[in-house]
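Predict structure. Input: YncE family protein, 325 residues.
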Amino acid sequence: MKHLFVTSSFLLLSYAVRGQQSSLSTELPITNVATVVLKLDGYPDFLVPDNNNVWITNVKRIDKLSPTTNKPILSVPVPEPCGAMAVGFGAVWVANCSDKSIYRIDRLTGKLVAKIPTGLADKHGELSLAVGDGSVWVLSDSTGILARIDPKTNKLQATIRVLPFSYCVAFGYGAVWITNTGQGKNRPGAGTNAGSVQRIDPQTNKVVVTIPTGMVPRFLAVGENGVWTLNQGDGSVSRIDPYTNKLIATIDVKATGLGGDIAAGAGKVWVRGNKTVFLATINPKTNSVDKRYGPISGSGAVRVTNDKSVWISSHDINTVWIIKP
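Output follows.
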């Protein structure tokens, strides 16, 4: 991840929503369907919802954004923020790649509350944090260590052995879910092995089951009656039934390559691609792609806020869009 700018400017532009429906052969222009377009200097990348607002990582800071203002609500210095953040326990939790620690920041004041030295499994920052069952979760070592943080003490309360080359974690349906990239490399590339998802019981800190997925699963989402993985090796999305722990669908989104993101909410699964797909939606009722948005705009993130707004970022063109499905 290259950080190019240190100063920040913020421009808000509004667009009318068009009530168009898409076929698979029709790519909806994102600027035509966006209700808000935000232009930011720096390197706006990973998103996390905070009620109807979002936090976004940027160069040496994280910003809290609102759809109704023309500047960040808060800007908080962080030396090298990386990965998908988490919000919970009155705080935003962000990985800092330069010292391999988790920073706890008060979500209302922006005050740095604690630095927790955990280690990070991916030195490049392509990772995610999660909150759930009274804890904060992060993959802390590429040899296969899931770290559990107690927010009451801001200290590690447990480390759990998982498969190696695991980087991303999510929480839902009473469990912790992690992806295992499966090809024995820190970054996807030449590997051909299928990856997997592991389910961890937070009551016992034990792996319950390992579930095969598509090639090189990295980012994952929990919701819309499934656990969903974006498989960077073949561009597919795997759907796991959290009630049976079975793989029930593989959707060919064609979102291959590094980067990207995935989110579940507002009745859809949202897939943010990189070089082959800008944004696609999966209908969880049919397990098929029902809309595509363009044009290709480099990599970034996608998240759904409490009011069912969908936020999409592109660090390559310094832009954030908001759409209302």
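Residues 1-23, 184-191 have pLDDT under 50 and may be disordered.
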